[in-house]
């Protein structure tokens, strides 16, 4: 078996599966991250609202996606864990320090305040009123937009949905009707922040 070892950690002397002694087979891994940011075509400020997201790991992943996509602010509400919990860093990997965030216990009152401030609310949710996210992108330009993601099981609070200008979803081609909350958030964040991003076919992502 081949497996990576983080340099200078003292780990890797034995196989993590069987405990047998190991030997170094190749040189150190190198980080091959993307060093230059992609420029978005829109100028609308995009923020996000995480209401009653239960999983620390989902929220950490959302912080990382928010950082990569260029989300301007994360509003954490209800039972959504905050970066004050050190375990969130396991999936945020430092993004919790680069993305501005605030916490409100009551998601509905937070949503009301955001709408009263002139922000537009878009919910990432299914249902009869929901349209594919790609179809909603032509209406993206305008005042700051807040993408709302709700509880992993129950979805977005119905009272918050009533405040939303639009309800959007990510089309599904398989047997399941929805994605993991953090995965769906990442897809939507990039679509909203970089609406002109093209796939390798030259066409916008569906």
Question: Could you walk me through the main structural features you see in this protein, from its secondary elements to its overall organization?
Answer:
It is a single chain. This protein has one domain: 3-Layer(aba) Sandwich (Alpha/beta knot). It has helices at residues 56-69, 89-92, 107-116, 133-136, 158-161, 181-193; strands spanning 46-51, 74-77, 101-104, 120-124, 131-132, 145-149, 166-169. Helix content is 24%, strand content 15%. The protein starts with 45 loop residues before the first strand and ends in a 13-residue tail after the last helix. Mean pLDDT is 83; it is low at 198-206. A seven-stranded parallel beta sheet has the order 3-2-1-6-4-7-5, sandwiched between helices. It is of the alpha/beta class.
Q: What is the level 1 CATH name? A: Alpha Beta
Q: Report the strand count.
A: 7
Tally of contiguous helical segments? 6
Main beta sheet:
7 strands, parallel
**CATH homologous superfamily title:** SPOUT methyltransferase, trefoil knot domain
Q: What CATH architecture would you give?
A: 3-Layer(aba) Sandwich
- Tell me the CATH topology: Alpha/beta knot
Q: State the separation between the terminal residues, measured CA to CA.
A: 38 Å
**Portion in helices:** 10-25%
Beta-strand portion reads: 5-15%
* Tally of discrete structural domains: 1
Major sheet: arrangement of strands: 3-2-1-6-4-7-5
Write the layout of secondary structure elements.
Layout: E1 46-51, H1 56-69, E2 74-77, H2 89-92, E3 101-104, H3 107-116, E4 120-124, E5 131-132, H4 133-136, E6 145-149, H5 158-161, E7 166-169, H6 181-193
Parallel strand pairs: 1-2, 1-6, 2-3, 4-6, 4-7, 5-7
